[in-house]
DNA sequence: GCAGATTGTTAGCCTTGTCTAACTTTATGC
DNA sequence: GCATAAAGTTAGACAAGGCTAACAATCTGC
């Protein structure tokens, strides 16, 4: 990730001594928000490569529910950030970094989803909520989710 | 909310027959994302009014961890959307609609937080994760969270 | 009651993420 | 092998949400 420095920076309080703990929480949330889209894209791209053999922009657009130009621009940003490689009119490939992120995201998605299902949620709602929640669970929370899902 | 029509629209599939269920999930997530900031602001404003007697931009900026001009611009949007009223150089007030949203948000925040704590999470992490997760839990999930937190 | 500090506003810049319209390239079917 | 369809790109608009710099209003302490 390009912007993860912020994530880390927050840890040792870069603020000029305004360090309200609430402000720090919001900083963390904003940092997470900045990565959401990239995470969803690489996760989807990995899945398409796995199930279809390749990740084509048209399929990304369909699954994401956005238009083709939106996908094009987003892919350009992902390429700039070193998560994918692409060539004009060709399908999309993940870089090593992209693959690593995709794997991590899939793992998180999986755990959050299993957790919600194990709480008794219907699968459609679980899928929808997981898609949003997955970007906002810390390692600790994830561990607790995994433990709960396994134990039940 | 101004943009909530989207939320509802999604329910009876407005897409031209591309209705991938994944796409619908992402539509829902994007709709939730559009309301996150407004939700955080009205919740904070309500809290400031309650604890300080009034909500001043400077305090909003401190708690949110952003600069004053950012707050100013955001407050203008909230006013435009009918959630607050404000006058130049004066503190901020919630409209009826704003109060309703704030109440709902506080309720959701509370439940998500209690739920995370009841899972065994430390309070700092719980607060941080709740701040992000709260915007992505459906009514159903919230009900399950509440039940779990109460039962434990 | 005024100087200086604090608070608030305005202007303007930047990036992200969405869209439509128009065009180009590639794939497909006969 | 060519016409048409499908996929992809490019250009450009627009709103949100962040920032800094500069200025204006208000508050505070003496
Ligand atoms: Mn997601
Ligand atoms: Mn996901
Ligand atoms: Mn929040
Ligand atoms: Mn909250």
Question: Keywords for this structure?
Answer:
homodimer; 152 residues; mainly alpha; Arc Repressor Mutant, subunit A; two-stranded antiparallel sheet; 7 helices; 72% helix; disordered N terminus; binds manganese (II) ion; DNA-binding
Describe this structure as you would to a colleague.
- The first copy, chain A, has 152 residues and is an all-alpha fold.
- Chain A has one domain: Winged helix-like DNA-binding domain superfamily/Winged helix DNA-binding domain (Arc Repressor Mutant, subunit A, Orthogonal Bundle).
- Helix content of chain A is 72%, strand content 3%.
- A two-stranded antiparallel sheet of chain A has the order 1-2.
- In chain A, α1 packs antiparallel against α2, α2 packs across α5 and α3 packs across α4 (68-80).
- The longest helix of chain A has 32 residues, at 21-52.
- The model of chain A is unreliable at 1-18 (pLDDT under 50).
- Chain A binds chain B through residues 15, 18, 20-29, 32-33, 36, 40, 62-66, 116, 119-122, 124-129, 131-133, 135-138, 140-141, 144-145, 148, and chain B through 15, 18, 20-29, 32-33, 36, 40, 62-66, 116, 119-122, 124-129, 131-133, 135-138, 140-141, 144-145, 148.
- Chain A binds a DNA duplex (30 and 30 nucleotides) through α2 and α4.
The structure class of chain A reads: mainly alpha
Number of strands of chain A: 2
Radius of gyration of chain A: 17 Å
User: How many domains of chain A, as an integer?
Assistant: 1
Distance between the termini of chain A: 35 Å
- Associated small molecules: manganese (II) ion
Low-pLDDT segments of chain A: 1-18
Tell me what portion of residues of chain A adopts beta-strand conformation: under 5%
Helix content of chain A: over 70%
The CATH architecture of chain A can be given as: Orthogonal Bundle
Strand order of the largest sheet of chain A: 1-2
H/I helix tally of chain A: 7
Order of helices and strands of chain A: HHHHEEHHH
Determine the CATH topology of chain A. Arc Repressor Mutant, subunit A
Described by its quaternary structure, the protein is homodimer
Which descriptor suits the 3D outline of chain A?
globular
């Amino acid at each position: 990730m390009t912007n993860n420095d912020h994530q880390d920076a927050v840890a040792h309080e870069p603020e000029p001594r305004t360090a309200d703990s609430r402000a720090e929480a919001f900083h963390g949330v904003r940092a997470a928000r900045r990565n959401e889209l990239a995470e969803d894209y690489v996760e989807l791209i990995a899945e398409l490569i796995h199930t279809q053999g390749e990740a084509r922009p048209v399929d990304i657009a369909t699954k994401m529910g956005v238009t083709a130009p939106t996908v094009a621009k987003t892919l350009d940003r992902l390429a700039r950030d070193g998560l994918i490689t692409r060539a004009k009119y060709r399908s999309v490939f993940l870089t090593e970094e992209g693959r690593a992120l995709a794997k991590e995201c899939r793992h998180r998605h999986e755990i959050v989803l299993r957790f919600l299902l194990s709480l008794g949620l219907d699968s459609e709602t679980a899928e929808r909520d997981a898609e949003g929640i997955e970007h906002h669970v810390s390692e600790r929370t994830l561990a607790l989710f995994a433990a709960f899902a396994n134990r039940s």
